[in-house]
Amino acid sequence: MIKKTKIYVAGHQGMVGSAIVRKLKSIGYNNILTRSHDELDLTNQTQVQKFFAAEKPDQVYLCAAKVGGIHANNTFPAEFIYDNLMIESNVIHNAWKVGVKKLLFLGSSCIYPKLPDQIIKENAMLSGQVESTNEPYAIAKIAGIKLCESYNRQYGESHKIDYRSVMPTNLFGIGDNYHPENSHVIPGLIQRFYRAKISKDPFVSVWGTGSVSREFLYVDDMADASIFVMNLDHKIYKEHTDPMVGHVNVGFGSDVTIKDLAKLVSNVVGYDGEIVFDTSKPDGTPKKLLDSSKIKLMGWNPSISLEDGLKLTYQDYENNNKSLRS
Ligand SMILES: NC(=O)c1ccc[n+]([C@@H]2O[C@H](COP(=O)([O-])OP(=O)(O)OC[C@H]3O[C@@H](n4cnc5c(N)ncnc54)[C@H](OP(=O)(O)O)[C@@H]3O)[C@@H](O)[C@H]2O)c1
Questions:
Q1: Which of 21, 225, 236, 298 is least enclosed by beta carbons within 10 angstroms?
Q2: Is 137 a catalytic residue?
Q3: In ligand 1, which atom is closest to the CA atom of 64?
Q4: Index of the ligand 1 atom closest to the CA of residue 15
Q5: Rounded distance from Cα 172 to ligand 1 centre (Å)
Q6: In a mutational test of the pocket of ligand 1, which residue from 8, 36, 63, 313 has the highest number of ligand atoms less than 8 Å from its CB?
Q7: How do residues 13-30 score in pLDDT, each as one tens digit?
């Protein structure tokens, strides 16, 4: 069935935004509005104001953000806080001004304080200090959640708006970032095992003991969860959230040790050398797992296993490598 809701996906060329566009199209939405960063700079108030006034979408997925790893966060802290605050303020305020009823803001699990060995619930936000390396980014993301909550509290009834936020765990998948300094753990491992396979290296060295655990969600599951939360009945969303804790975690629900992850990635890539753990390098927090029981109670579950997601991701990586070589 063709669905005519006019949907603006901000950040549609990014990993999450592109997955949301793919999913929306696959379920029949055919009125999807997109603008590249070059066409519309979301930090520019005038441009954003004009865009919303002209287009008046029905729904907005806010996936655009300045995103990066520890190195980028440390090197450009001013850009990380300024760009993200501006993008969120401009998009959320102008959406409200032109009467957008539904908006979904994508945050990040870095909004939570450093809590070793715990499963992180939504209400942990603002209960302690966040990781100092990405504090400016985390503060901007917290502000995005608070913007949604505050517009709902002030204008929810009078303007019939319902702005929601989702906090994804670590994501991976098609369109991931393979930048040598900025990539996350899965694209980093894929790249290293792939190179080792091509050059027939006898071993690949992985940072740390390999005993710490992390949670990963395939990006198509994230897109599915985003569309699910956007369209969830108001009453059900309200039952499971609080006006001042209005966000919902989206995770896989279980984690994996870096050792097991490295083995899985090396199998998927087809590398048959040895994996060596460099214990002189830091491990980081022993465990980081989101408590995703709320979204599960609301009726959503992930459907793509880590192994299947890795196979799809590697296929995409290989295809891109082939097209670069040809
Ligand atoms: N990837 C993860 O593991 C992960 C985990 C948790 C949460 N998230 C969140 O999910 C969201 C999307 O992440 P992602 O991985 O899809 O990031 P991404 O691949 O870097 O995509 C972000 C998109 O936003 C665009 N953008 C940045 N600044 C802009 C501006 N001023 N105006 C217009 N467009 C702008 C970027 O365009 P350019 O590239 O052209 O600048 C890019 O297309 C982010 O909010 C992120 O925090 C991601």
A1: 236
A2: yes
A3: 24
A4: 16
A5: 13
A6: 63
A7: 999 999 999 999 999 999
Amino acid at 124: A
Burial class (CB in 10 A: 0-12, 13-18, 19+), 116: exposed
Q: Which atom of ligand 1 is nearest to the CA of 42?
A: 32
Residues written for the chain: 326
pTM (whole model) above 0.85: yes
Say if CB 6 and CB 24 are below 8 A apart. Answer: no
Residue 152 CA, distance from chain mean position: 23
**Ligand 1 atom 7 nearest Cα:** 108
Which two structure tokens, joined as six digits, stand for 307? 């192994």
Name residue 263's amino acid: K
Q: Is the C-beta atom of 15 inside 6 A of ligand 1?
A: yes
pLDDT, tens digit, for every residue of 117-143? 679 999 999 999 998 889 999 999 999
Phi, then psi, of 126 in degrees rounded to 5: 65, 20
Secondary structure in 3-state letters for the chain: CCECCCEEEECCCCHHHHHHHHHHHHCCECCEECCCCCCCCCCCHHHHHHHHHHHCCCEEEECCCCCCCHHHHHHCHHHHHHHHHHHHHHHHHHHHHCCCCEEEEECCHHHCCCCCCCEECHHHCCCCCCCHHHHHHHHHHHHHHHHHHHHHHHHHHHHCCEEEEEEECEEECCCCCCCCCCCCHHHHHHHHHHHHHHCCCCEEEEECCCCCEECEEEHHHHHHHHHHHHHCCHHHHHHHCECCECEEEECCCCCEEHHHHHHHHHHHHCCCCEEEEECCCCCCCCEEEECCHHHHHHCCCCCCCHHHHHHHHHHHHHHHHHHHHC
